[in-house]
Amino acid sequence: MPLTAALLVTVPVFLQAPWVRSAPMAAALFTLPLLALALVLERRGQGQWQQLGVLLVGFCGSWLGGCLFWGWFRLHPVMHLPIEAFALPLAVAGLGGRWRLAGAFYLGSLLGTACTDGVMAAAGLMDLWPQVLNAPLSEAPLLLQGAAIQVLHPWPLALVGLTASLLVFVCRRLWTLGGTWRVTAAALGTTLAVDTLFLAAALVAPHLSGLI
């Protein structure tokens, strides 16, 4: 399950983002068959298949939140975390019962998102968010690269390094707890890895910004 959780974290980067950009309603409605599949697996599956169904329920929450934000509110970064966190009460409640894996995945993904947004805000990069997304495709890569270069300044770089170190520590502690918490660790750790990859790409190959 931790490996599956890690793979699911990468789906929004390479599949959901371009789909939402071209057809946001279709991407959002895809939540329904995805959730139906998850519930069938949870109800009728055995062993790993049943666990996969529970995990997919948590993924559905992340998927729908991402579709809603990137489809209709992407130019308003202040709305990002509140929209992504719409299922937070359900995820927390699920930790105490049969939906533990779903809640663990959703919370790990949400915590990663919160840390990313928090670092961007503290580093003074939030104002560049709508500029990059609103720019023509010919200009967006240069704006994105400029934002990434700002991260290399002393204060943002120190903040990124400190946050990354803290997240690695949290992931290791969660992993040692075993069981469901390893799914949280996998989701959180993969989010950190994807952010690192995206920052590197923005610096050396900003044309890849079309992936998000």
Automatic annotation (TrEMBL):
<dbReference type="InterPro" id="IPR021468">
    <property type="entry name" value="DUF3120"/>
</dbReference>
<protein>
    <submittedName>
        <fullName>DUF3120 domain-containing protein</fullName>
    </submittedName>
</protein>
<feature type="transmembrane region" description="Helical">
    <location>
        <begin position="53"/>
        <end position="73"/>
    </location>
</feature>
<dbReference type="Pfam" id="PF11318">
    <property type="entry name" value="DUF3120"/>
</dbReference>
<feature type="transmembrane region" description="Helical">
    <location>
        <begin position="25"/>
        <end position="41"/>
    </location>
</feature>
<keyword id="KW-0472">Membrane</keyword>
<feature type="transmembrane region" description="Helical">
    <location>
        <begin position="183"/>
        <end position="205"/>
    </location>
</feature>
<feature type="transmembrane region" description="Helical">
    <location>
        <begin position="79"/>
        <end position="97"/>
    </location>
</feature>
<keyword id="KW-0812">Transmembrane</keyword>
<keyword id="KW-1133">Transmembrane helix</keyword>
<feature type="transmembrane region" description="Helical">
    <location>
        <begin position="146"/>
        <end position="171"/>
    </location>
</feature>
<feature type="transmembrane region" description="Helical">
    <location>
        <begin position="104"/>
        <end position="126"/>
    </location>
</feature>
